[in-house]
Amino acid sequence: MSDKPRLLIVEDDQGLQRQLRWAYEDYEVLVAGDRQAAIDALRLGEPKVVTLDLGLPPDPDGTSEGFATLAEILALAPDTKVIVASGHGARESALRAISGGAYDFYQKPVDIDELGLIVRRAFHLHAIEAENRRLAESVDGRHAVLGGMITAAPEMLKVARTIERVAGTNVSVMLLGASGTGKELLARGLHDTSRRAGAFVAINCAAIPENLLEAELFGHEKGAFTGAIKTTEGKIEQAEGGTLFLDEVGDIPLALQVKLLRFLQERVIERIGGRKAIPVDTRIVCATHQNLDEMIGDGRFREDLYYRLAEIVVKIPTLAERPGDAGLLARHFLGRFAKEMNPAVKGFTPDALTAIDAWSWPGNVRELENRLKRAVIMADGRLVTAADLDLEAQDEDEALINLKAARERADRKAIRHALARTENNISGAAKLLGISRPTLYDLLKQYDISTA
Fold first, then answer.
1. Is residue 327 predicted with pLDDT exceeding 50?
2. Does residue 98 carry a pLDDT above 50?
């Protein structure tokens, strides 16, 4: 067989078979006159697109055999694009075929030019879906790093290496980053990579009222206050031998900061209403999106507590500072949500991928995840569009005055987007960028961009 795309024509009229074969010079055409021959050709040739006449023997004047053939083709090769034709109640048959999984339909008598356009679109769509699947598989297989975080950005890989390096120690770690950048995911990854056998316990300090936060952290004895009907361990005790993640640590009130500092210094706690010092071996990892230096200057956060919590400080870049990651994450989320909520969705249209790359993602990964979930639910077709994502073009406010620096920044961003889009395929990336492979190699070397 040749390297041309394979097109299967299922048609019992031999004259029309010859006409259609002649019309498709750009394809390797396979022909079948009945259901069994069509299935044999499907198994042998694995055509990406099939044109199917619903009026097949032994029911050439009806559609029963055609619909049976359609069902069998899609059962064997669900990604095949099947274009159906019928002169028997064309509208009703077309609607039934589409609902049964057909890609498109055409009416007899055949308009060769119109059918040719439908066939070309079908091959193009099949190629896009196949590329989406390949990239989604590579995302799941090659870019999952610490804590299951998905990235190909050097900035984020550096963060992961730092956390892996300190995971085996008992130092306190502070994660600084904007909301939605994955701080809890990294904290969980740090715990999983450590040698600590206890539990990972997380608490959002901003989500708990001030008068209840102390009890949540340190626990309480029976009868310590109204409603304390039994002795309850706090989060610090629950994380004995493991890790306690304090999210939004900047929201801890000053009075409670003193008690937390004592625990970090002496590694003992006292429950509310208790007088017994309880030794606890719990590692603290904390996170915040607030500027703690300003809070220390304003007297809203204790400096001595800061230095106890921030033995190691890790700054997490925003999604906009990680070129290429938005596309990788989008494919990952689409695969997950499509499987759960809309299996018909297979990938993205080119305009959706462009919009994803161009958007600044002020809400970071959380915003991307939410937009993908909504888009998958609302998508009408097999591919998510930019409109499904509800994305608009955004003006870029470039502050760079130096032309050379601005050009280098634009080059780096474009190259990394292209590498992410093509899964580090140099030929594909060069084609996307409109340059030759040697030129791309020179730029990779000049800007010290790794494709590993």
1. yes
2. yes
Q: How far apart are CA 330 and CA 361, in angstroms?
A: 12
Diameter of the chain measured on Cα atoms: 97
**pTM of the predicted structure, to 2 decimals:** 0.61
Tokens 């080119």 found at: 350
The bridge status of strand 268-269 relative to strand 278-279 is antiparallel
Please name which of 349, 332, 323, 329 lies closest in space to residue 429, comparing C-alpha atoms. Answer: 323
Nearest 10 degrees: Cα torsion 364, 370, 372, 377: -170
Tell me how far CA of residue 387 lies from CA of 24, 363, 390, in angstroms: 34, 19, 5
Residues 23 and 47 sit within 8 Å (Cβ to Cβ): no
Q: Which two tokens stand for residue 433?
A: 């960028």
Cα gap 1→45, rounded to integer Å: 8
What span, in angstroms and rounded, lies between the C-alpha atoms of 37 and 32? 5
Q: What is the pLDDT of residue 314?
A: 95
Confidence of residue 446 (pLDDT cuts 50, 70, 90): confident
* Per-residue CA distances from 282 to 196, 199, 201, 241, 316 (Å): 9, 10, 10, 6, 24
Q: How would you class 343 by CB atoms within 10 Å of its CB: exposed for 0-12, middle for 13-18, buried for 19 or more?
A: exposed
Spell out the residues 6+ positions from residue 17 whose beta carbon is closer than 8 angstroms to its own: 9, 11, 31, 33
CA dihedral 290, 295, 301, 307 (to 10 degrees): 80
Looking at the DSSP bridge assignments, the partners of residue 28 are 6
Helix residue ranges per DSSP H, 89-181? 90-99, 112-142, 154-167
Find out whether 300 and 253 touch, Cβ atoms under 8 Å.
Answer: no
Return the pLDDT at 401. 45
d(CA 267, CA 4): 71
Cβ partners under 8 Å of residue 193, min gap 6: 146, 163, 164, 167, 168
* CA 377 – CA 360 distance, rounded (Å): 23
**Structure tokens belonging to residue 77:** 């090769």
Cis peptide before 253 (omega within 30 of 0): no
Q: Quick one: which of 47, 97, 100 has its CA closest to 77? A: 47
